Sequence to fold (666 residues):
Amino acid sequence: MNTDFLLETKDLRVEVSGIPILSGVDLTFSAGQVYAILGPNASGKSTLAKAIMGLPEYKISGGDILFNGKSILHKSITERARMGIAYAFQTPPRIPGVKLDDFICRVCPDYQCKDEDEMLMGDSCACKQILYDDFERLGIRNLANRELNDGFSGGESKRSELFQVLSMRPKIMFLDEPDSGLDYDSLKIVGRELKAIREKRDATLVIISHHRYVLEFLEVDKIYILQRGRLVYTGDMSDIPILEEKGYERFFAEIAG
Amino acid sequence: MPSGNTKKRARSAREKTAPYGDDINLEEYEYSTSHPSDLESLDNISKQDRTLVREVGFDPSQKRVSGSFMQFDNESILADVLIQQEGLEVMPTDLALKKYEWLHDYLWNAVQVDTDKYTARSELENYSGYFIRATAGSRIEMPVQSCLLMKKNQSVQNVHNIIIAEEGSELHIITGCATPANVEKSLHLGISEFYVKKKARLTFTMVHRWSEKIDVRPRSATIVEENGTFISSYAILSPLKSIQTFPKVRLVGPGAKTDLYSVVYGSKSSKYDVGGLLSLEAPKSNGKVISRSIATDECEIIARGDLIGLSGETRGRLECDGLLVSNTAVIRAVPMLAARAEGSELSHEATVGKVGAEQLSYLMSRGLNEDEATSLIIRGFVKLKVPDLPPALQKSIDDAIKMSMEGGM
Ligand SMILES: Nc1ncnc2c1ncn2[C@@H]1O[C@H](COP(=O)(O)OP(=O)(O)OP(=O)(O)O)[C@@H](O)[C@H]1O
Ligand SMILES: [Mg+2]
Fold:
């Protein structure tokens, strides 16, 4: 058994409501590396990440997912999350009545609420100040008191997802288009956060993206390109400008020919 | 209204069944034969009762209130206005009726005595209950708290409450009803009549916590005059045998406004039939009926909402949301809209569904297990955010909901 990889998919087949979306995908992810998953719209990138996270609508119809060499197919989402797998949703669902700060205090021990006794009258939750400082750093201090994903703008939503995923201190995180819909300044903020993780090398980053900025800024180690539910190309940073210039269609035609 | 006539109307409706809710045989209960005695002080209530009343938002220490009213069964009563509160009256209804001749005009005015057998019976038996009034122009900022406890078996707690916010006044009431878990088969009949005068503002917050063998049939109605505001928020969080209530608010003056919020957290095999009716009778009057229902175990919840537009330039909105957390529970949302005047804009939105799979997956991906995720979604859903409610009352509601969730889940 090869345990060199932190996470692997082997001939992974996934269907949604009986329709095959991934048709045999083999990928490997090593600890501390940075990966990009690229490919045209609807090629199966989000599906891959959701299947790895264990979302029940994404049915594994064949193959395997290994974490530290062991299959995790029978593990629940919760177990996978607690093992250190994280997924930042492309479009996170709204959770009415649950405030972002309360939620983060609850799921992340680093920010945990203080004892009830220490709370002042009328406070619903006393999160540590550091939470608000960290919100500030990601430019989402204004969301602290808002209901989870309720009317967050596109860019706010990306930063809130990134924040949540980072605060769980995962071993491997799948970031689904963390860079789309961001303005120039937000893009820099997100880039800087990710760079800090890369430099620490204690987590594996897997970035699904359609843009080169963050990928180049981070200097990704490896790129995987999916097309119609299959892995069609494995490369590195140097392919990114070529891809941008040619577009997927020509790029695929040339590698085929 | 001469009382002879009232009694006659009551007698004529003795057998009149209510349109909604299971019919109750009123002969199976004992009615009180004496008038309640006075309870000397809140210090005399037992530790258990203290805990119980706290769960419905009553603070026995009276720290942040302007007055208190507490009643045990039909037996003993405490009515207390804190000294510094000018313009506030809190007293047992029967005393108030003796004290003020004019109060008889308010008795059975908003609620009709011959509505059904419950209103009829309430009039025909001994009753007590509270009279709370803010005099014209008084702004009573701290809430008046009231609590009706029911501890006797096989009997009826029969209350008739009259609440008056006189012209230009402001009054906030938080009221709780509770029974200890061991009470066997009993019935709560509660008549409440609210009068909100010109430019007055009344908020009424009610938390119910009954036990499994209790039937509850409150009958309440409100009349709101010109530019008056009535905000009601109601939470029923415990199992019971059955409740059927359909409070009615009549907006009779131009610019009158009302918002009715309710949360039903249904459990065990309880039956809840809870609704609200809004009658928009004057131009520029407007209101909302907003309900949230959560059905667990084998309970059955019917959430009704009825908007009637009788005048032009009126707006009414109905929102019924239901969350089903069990395969053996049922939620029915029954919205009704009737516009009888041109320019009455009525709208509604009703959703009933299970906890969203995507929401669950999302929360689980953040490390919560399925039960934790479900309970977080439910807690979020039941949160009753009532705009314009004083923060202390909002907190009472939040706390009551929190307590019953922790107890029940
Ligand atoms: N829950 C679902 N129900 C139905 N179809 C789905 C579902 N999830 C994914 N699909 C389908 O699977 C295919 C792959 O979708 P996926 O979201 O994985 O693409 P993607 O590569 O992430 O695309 P994009 O770049 O546009 O985000 C699409 O055709 C999509 O419509
Ligand atoms: Mg996608």
Summary: Residues A 16-17, 21, 39, 41-47, 57, 90 surround adenosine-5'-triphosphate (ligand 1) (CB under 6 Å).
